[in-house]
Amino acid sequence: MTLPHSPGNVGEPQPPQAVEVHRLERRHEEEQKERRQHSLHMGSSVQRRTFRSSEEEYQFSAADRALAAALALTASSEMSWEAQLRRQTSTVELEERGQKRVGFGNDLERTDIAYLRTQWLLRQSRDWKALRRRTEEKVREAKELRELCSGRAPWFWIPLRSHAVWERTTVLLTCTIQASPPPHVTWYKNDMQIDPRLFPPGKYRITNNYGLLTLEIRRCTVDDTATYTVKVKNTYGQASSFAKVLVRTYLGKDAGFDSEIFKRFTFGPSVEFTSVLKPVFAREKEPFSLNCLFSEDILDAEQNIQWFQDGKLMRPSGRRQILYADRQASLKVSCAYKEDEGFYTVRVPSPSGPLEQSTYVFVRDAAAENLGAPGSPLNVLCLDVNRDCLILTWTPPSDTRGSPIIGYSIEQCQGKSGQWVPCHEAPGGTCRCPIQGLIKGQSYRFRVRAISKAGSSLPSKASEPVVMVDHDEARRMTEIPFDLGNKIMVSTDDLEDFVTIPSPPTNVHASEIREAYAVLAWDEPRPRGRAPLTYSLEKSVIGSGTWEAISTEAPVKSPRFALLDLEKGKSYVFRVRAMNQYGMSDPSEPSEPITLRGKPATLPPPAKVQAFRDTQTSISLTWDPVKEGPELLGYYIYSRQAGSSEWQTVNNKPIQGSKFTVPGLKTGKEYEFCVRSVSEAGVGESSEATEPIRVKQALATPSAPYDFTLLNCGKNDMVIGWKPPKRRGGGKILGYFLDQHDSEELDWHPVNQQPVPTQVCQVSKLREGHFYEFRARATNWAGVGELSAPSSLFECKEWTMPQPGPPYDVRAFEVRATSLMLKWEPPLYIGAGPVTGYYISFQEEGSEQWKPVTSDPISGTHLRISDLQPGKSYLFQVQAVNSAGPGQPSMPTDPILLEDKPDAPEIKVGVDEEGFIYLAFEAPEAPDSSEFQWSKDYKGPLDPQRVKIEEGDNKSKVILKDPGLKDLGTYSVVVTDADEDISASHTLTEEELDKLKKLSHEIRNPVIKLISGWNIDILERGEVRLWLEVEKLSPAAELHLIFNEKEIFSSPNRKINFEREKGLVEVIIENLSEDDKGSYTAQLQDGKAKNQVTLALVDDDFDKLLRKADAKKRDWKRKQGPYFEEFLQWKVTEDCQVLLTCKVTNTKKETRFQWFFQKREAPDGQYDPETGAGLLCIEELSKEDMGTYRAMVSDDRGEDNTILDLTGEALDAVFTELGRIGVLSATPLTIQGTEEGIRIFSKVKYYNVEYMKTTWFHKEKRLESGDRARAGTTLDEIWLHILDPKDSDKGRYTLEIAAGKEVRQLSTDLSGQAFDDALAEHQRLKALAIIEKNRAKVVRGLPDVATIMEDKTLCLTCVISGDPAPEISWLKNDQPVTFLDRYHMEVRGTEVTITIERVSSEDSGRYGVFVKNKYGSETGQVTISVFKHGEEFKVLEKM
To answer: Rounded to whole angstroms, how far apart are CA atoms 510 and 521?
Structure first.
């Protein structure tokens, strides 16, 4: 390490090191100068513009400024003579630059540039950053020196360590520290500071010898057991170290570092798992949780409880919670995705090392939005992220639901918008796709949907957010450290000379080639300039000789671009141009030829897929991994039950290894498995299916026996009993090997060389008064199991107590939610007398109190215990009783949890196909070596004289040979060699046995089941069909049809059909007659099964059937020609028209349709040949329309008619309907003033006095017709006339109209303004009537035209009226007539006569009589025509 020199050394002879440094720096400066000249040349050639002339002022480049800044920042760490040397070098360099600018001409320029370029090419291998590296090295060395010379915080070179010592000994705690300046030291005991002055002299001794700290504790007692801590502190910081001291108070196997006390003190309480993690089968988008229970509380649970997924430590997140409370650790996931599938492990510390439990979580596909759509993809990842593009990959789903995937839809979400927008479609043969057109600096998330013909899947889980960044920009940044920890960031762009138009990109190549696209990549140009760059791409098909620009939707800003529109089978070359605001570069060198690849092939399936038994509900699989292809994503596993054709998905997340355990299978069922490889090309073909394997416990060595107890003891022998292993290894326990140990000896000795088949062993040749302990191993077909823990010490001393010894082999069977069956073996030592009974007591788990089950002893060796609390765990023990009293209690049972297992097998009672009564028990989880032990009333094996036992795969069946009262009782069964209790019982009662015997009789004497008895149908042509239906019969079934006690067979008139497959018997009688009257009996037999059914066709039943058959036959014959599909019927319209309608079918052109009324043809009838509809309309029905109507249709095939009788009740029904419609059509009451009074009326469409009744009410009082009120009706009106109305006539008037059951009321209020208006109108009309009555008028008499011959006398007479008598005058052609000579007028009362004598043509014209009085006037006119003799008579029109 070189230390800095003082300033006083300037001018003195330099050492060889300094000379070498000066030489290297000089050479480095020359290289930099040459690079600047070359950069000048390159910049001129690219920009294609001027060099500076000798008169132009030189401008320093960015590299000059950056170098000057770096030198200025590092100047403080250099020697002064080096600084002077740098200044001299800079001066020389500036002089050389000036000299080079003097002779600037074209020839000199070319010569100079060629010289500099050649010199640069010769020295390009030298690193131009040598000066900077040396500067960094000098800064680093100076920094280290300053750190060594400066102060530092304390730290422990050797920390404290824990000690375990005996009582009344001395312990020395030591540690070593380093610190500058020396720290202050403080010792603590259980966080309390130790002050030696406060303790007895010499108890504590504290020293500090140059960083070696000691604490001596003398004459240790139990009170000195504690945690000791030393804390050191100076101005730069502090540190601490602690150790635990355990003071042992006694010697023995529980002392020392292996003792539980030390472990608990050092590592905390011993924790065990009290529950087992079970596989979880979750569903996508739904929550799931994992829970486990511990035996002790865990200190600092957040740090000590760790959850792992596939070996990766899990942390809480928005979807994931890690909880701990009440000795239970939980992992909860609020919304599951397929990515959450995997192997989960929970780990906790313990004194013996970390404890772990693991399980597998399966995440199944959520229900599809479209039926049959595939499952969602998973593991969406963003790769090769650039400023505007990336590569997206995902894993295909395992379940396509029977429809292959044809493509993928990609959606993107920008930032935190939450809006998912489709952005790309990918073909189905790949799980990889480029995404372009993204924005630099923005964050994106992506998700994928799988698409098949059935529809689109649910979206995958979104990818992690990814920010679009320019990685090349980060690589262009250089970090220069200086001044002990500081640094400066310099961009390579700042070190380049100023250029405008960039150089061409380089290294154009295909970074990725796929079936549907190729990704083109290139390096940025050098120099690139400082302006932002975009790129233009060109392509050329090999052999075309032309270049074509590639159009892009957005500018290409990254040195990556995905080509999506290339044609398969063609080879392309590409080149790239760089562009900025100043212009476009020359094209790059063409790439190598690029051709799209063919469709990627899926990976082959793995070989040698093998299945092995694992547990009661799982199978272990192994296979040879696939070695082909680098894109293997894992494996999908599929399973199916043997015999099924449909494969079920096991996992939805690819498995990485080559083995897997499939859980959640049904015990005892056979399964087949296959495996498929997964890659970016999709899911491959299935491997060959494994051989069917039955789900059973795999054979393994058993666990250790436990709970040893002394059953009997003599002077030199003992009888030892124990409990069987909790895990029997899936096989039968063949026996036990027992070891003994004398407490006064060191070694263990075997008791037996051959395995003991029971759980009781007599040990002989013992020494009286010695203490012995025992241990054992169980053995099965897999080998010898674990060695048990040693038993307690038993003294070999002969038993002489009068009480009996302990019962043994206490076991619980038939455990349910509130009850169980307890069985035991009687004691081997009975004491002073025989055992007279047993006391049973129980204890709740966690309690110390034993409670009796029964108050009195029981005599048997079994007891059903009921009325227990479900969900609790109980322990039971048994005491034998003799005349001396109760003896020793048995070894308590293990805790027994009372619960109803949903899949617990029960004994099934029934009758088999042969009619035998049986009791069957099936236990799929039973090991292969298990036996089914049956007993009756818990008294031993069943009587082989009364029952027969049949065994099958995991099944056992007890068949009663001769069922009777002796077979009543409780039947129980126990499955041996099972780890868990598999047992059941059933009590066979007399009532149940009677039902079973009845069913047995029915099976042994079967009856063909009758589905439907005899039925009678009349067919279309009038045939009669007799049929019955029974259950399906075999081909050998027989039928005997008996008619009137005589068997009949098929004949032309009577056909018999017997369809055994359908169980159908039918008899079809073509023409039913009296010969067919009688009883029909069908006798059926199918093997042992029989039945017969009888039908009686006699008396009225036969007569009715005969009439119906004849009518059906006639109807069929009628329908052979044109016939009425709808018979004649009437209908009343809303306009009160009566329509007679019918409809004809089966017609042709020649078909004739006729209407008749009263046997006369009715021409008004209508017929539509197109629809076959007939119509006869009666506009206003009256009594004249009463009669018989008939419609007839006929052609050469026959005729048919329909008749409607509109008389009597039928006619009344029509009129009633008309009346109903008339009632409903009544309009609201209207008030009208008349010359006689006030009229109230309602309009109706129809009114018939006979079928409609009307009633008027005034103020709810019925009105009767009288002098002042008259009621009446017309065909379209119902009215009430109030004559000479008065104030008493005011009020509400109601009209009640009734027609049959239809009644309607209409009301109006005749008062107030309504009454006044009607009265005023009455008075007005009354006045007009008086005027009209008295007005002068011509009543009658004058003709319109009169013709007369000349010379005749014309006499015209008319009648007039008027009061007073009117004035009379005659007019001729509107001029008054003068009554002279031939004109005369005569008035006789109301008759007025005008006479004209000897008429002539001059008398022709229009005459009128004009009458007038004070009430009015009127003119009566007549036209007179006079013709001459001999002229033709003409009738004149009125003028």
So the answer is: 6
Please give the Cα distance from 1126 to 1140 (Å, whole number): 12
Gap between the Cα atoms of 25 and 135, Å rounded = 11
CA distance between the termini of the chain? 155
Of 64, 987, 939, the C-alpha closest to 498 is 64
Cα–Cα distance for residue pair 1133/1138, rounded to 1 Å:
7
Q: Going by DSSP bridges, is the β-strand pair 749-750/735-742 parallel, antiparallel, or unpaired?
A: antiparallel
Q: Which two tokens stand for residue 666?
A: 């049904």
Task: Convert the pLDDT of each residue in 899-936 to its tens digit.
Answer: 988 888 999 999 998 889 999 999 888 888 889 999 99
Distances (CA, A) of 1326 to 710, 1232, 1416: 138, 13, 17
Sign for the CA dihedral angle at 1181, 1185, 1189, 1194 comes to negative
Q: How does the average pLDDT of the chain come out, rounded?
A: 85
Which of 1011, 1053, 1051 lies closest to 1028, judged by CA?
A: 1011
In whole angstroms, give the CA distance from residue 128 to residue 130. Answer: 6
**Rounded CA gap, 305 and 328, in Å?**
11
Q: Where are the beta strands (DSSP E) in 514-570?
A: 518-523, 534-541, 548-549, 560-563
For residue 1275, which of 1307, 1299, 1244 has the smallest C-alpha distance? Answer: 1244
Query: What is the bridge-based pairing of β-strands 163-166 and 237-248?
Result: parallel
List the structure tokens of 325. 């409370």
Judged by DSSP in three states, 39 sits in helix
**Can you read off the two tokens belonging to residue 1394?**
């005008």
Bridge-based pairing state of the strands 280-283 and 355-364? parallel
Q: Encoding tokens for residue 356?
A: 């772990």
Nearest to 449 by CA among 363, 374, 389, 381: 374
DSSP characters over 87-133: HHHHHHHHHHHHHHHHT--HHHHHHHHHHHHHHHHHHTTS-TTHHHH
Residue 560 token pair: 């990556």
Separation of CA 1310 from chain center: 72
Decide if 827 contacts 719 (C-beta within 8 A): no
DSSP 8-state class, residue 224? G
DSSP assignment, residue 889?
A: E
| Per-residue model confidence (pLDDT) at position 87 | 56
Which residue is it, tokens 């036209």?
Answer: 1423
Nearest residue to 1388 (alpha-carbon basis) of 1344, 1358, 1353, 1413: 1358
Task: Quickly tell me which residue has 């509809």 as its tokens.
Answer: 1173
Please give the Cα distance from 956 to 152 (Å, whole number): 82
Amino acid at 1032: K
CB atoms within 10 A of CB 1341: 17
Give the sign of the dihedral formed by CA 1359, CA 1360, CA 1361, CA 1364: negative
User: What letter represents residue 477's amino acid?
Assistant: M
Nearest alpha carbon to residue 610 among 620, 601, 600, 618: 620
C-beta separation of 736 from 776 below 8 A: yes
Instruction: Say yes or no to pLDDT of 31 above 80.
Output: no
Question: What is the phi/psi pair of residue 1096, to 5°?
Answer: -105, 115
Residues 36-63: tens digit of each pLDDT: 555 444 443 333 333 333 333 334 454 4
> Residue 310 pLDDT more than 60?
yes
Q: What is the pTM of this model?
A: 0.56
Residue 339 phi, psi (nearest 5) = -65, -20
CB 1147 within 8 A of CB 1169: yes
pLDDT level of residue 97 (50, 70, 90 thresholds): very low
Q: Residues 211-224, buried b or exposed e (16+ Cβ, 10 A)? A: bebebebeebeeeb
Q: Are 344 and 360 in contact (CB under 8 A)?
A: yes
Nearest-10 Cα torsion for 1042, 1045, 1051, 1055:
-30
CA–CA dist 1145, 1124 (Å, integer) = 6
Helix 62-74 and helix 130-149, axial crossing angle in degrees, nearest 10: 20
